[in-house]
Amino acid sequence: MYKDTLITAILLMAGKGARFSQIIPKQFIKLNNIPLFEIALKTLSECKWIDDIILVGPKNFTHPYYTCVEGGDTRQESSYNGLLACKKNTGIVLIHDALRPFVTQRIIKENIIAAYKT
Question: What is the model's pTM?
Answer without folding.
Answer: 0.89
